[in-house]
Amino acid sequence: MFVILLILSIADYYDLKFGIIPNKLSLILFIYGILFNLILSIYFNNALIFIFSIALTALITLISFILWHIGFWGGGDFKLFIGLSLALSFLDLNLINLNYFSNLNLGIFNQLIFYPKVISILLNGILIALILIFFSIIYDVIRNNKIKYFSKLSILNFSLAFSQITAKTVSIESLSEGMVLNQYYFKNQIAYDRINDLKNKKDSNINLKAYKEGDFYCFSSLNSMGLTKEDIKLINGLYKMDLIKNPNFKIKAEIPFMPFITLGYIGFLIFGDFIAIISTFIKLLF
């Protein structure tokens, strides 16, 4: 458990300071998981332990890939989470009636949950992130007088308020690879057709989506991979040809997610599954 926490802490440092998670850390955690489960299989003379760890990790990889594809997190988070899943798969051996570790002093074994323990860590991290982000937004609203984005404090417009407040504006000269572009509105159909024509070409590396919204056209990044070199070249070309007018672009501010995974992991070790705790508390109230 300490080795995992150490690796996660190093990943937090890189994520917070540089905005990346080195592939070497993910590889180290993955190799650790492979060796650990192999040793467990040999120690207990049960190959099912190793087979189960691979099968469970394959399932988590699929879930993680979907989350990456929809822009929930970056590639570094995705890869490290796979390693984390493999390293902690032994905690779910009870799912196949292998109760070697049920006597560990972890609160999670006293809670009734129906998903892998690594998903519990992820959900813990998401809950912590939502709480901190919510209070950060409230603080930013009060400090910078952005109350107009909170004309209605409701779940329905939380996403809009979040995107407005966390977005930053950069000039066309400052665009760089990996930046995730928010909606950019323009009126020229030639620019709209140009983006779609290049995007639909064979072997195109255009990562922009262009669409019509009311009387305006709009383009934005297609996914969390952000701008490519070809995107930046295309945008600069459209601007130089006067097909788009505004030289400023709204970029989605990146929020490092790995520290929340680490906090979710620590909370998991101490308290267990936060959703199970909240559910128990609600049952006691009602």
CATH fold name of the largest domain, please? Four Helix Bundle (Hemerythrin (Met), subunit A)
Helix content: 55-70%
Estimated share of beta-strand residues: 5-15%
- What best-fitting shape do the alpha-carbon axes yield? elongated
Explain what you see.
The protein is mainly alpha-helical and 286 residues long. The protein folds into 2 domains: 161 residues, Four Helix Bundle (Hemerythrin (Met), subunit A), CATH 1.20.120; 72 residues. Helix content is 56%, strand content 9%. Strands 2-4-3 form a 3-stranded antiparallel sheet, with helices on one face. It has a two-stranded antiparallel ribbon with strand order 1-5. Strand 3 and strand 4 form a beta hairpin. Helix 2 runs antiparallel to helix 3, helix 3 packs antiparallel against helix 4 and helix 5 packs across helix 9. About 2% of the residues have low confidence.
List the helices and strands and how they pair.
Elements lengths: L1 H17 L4 H21 L4 H22 L5 H14 L28 H28 L13 H9 E5 L12 E3 L2 H11 L8 E6 L2 E6 L7 H12 L7 E5 L5 H13 L3 H12 L1
Antiparallel strand pairs: 1-5, 2-4, 3-4
Short synopsis of the structure:
This protein has helices at residues 2-18, 23-43, 48-69, 75-88, 117-144, 158-166, 189-199, 229-240, 258-270, 274-285; strands spanning 167-171, 184-186, 208-213, 216-221, 248-252. The chain has 286 residues and is mostly helical. Helix 1 (2-18) runs antiparallel to helix 9 (258-270), helix 2 runs parallel beside helix 4 and helix 3 (48-69) runs antiparallel to helix 4.
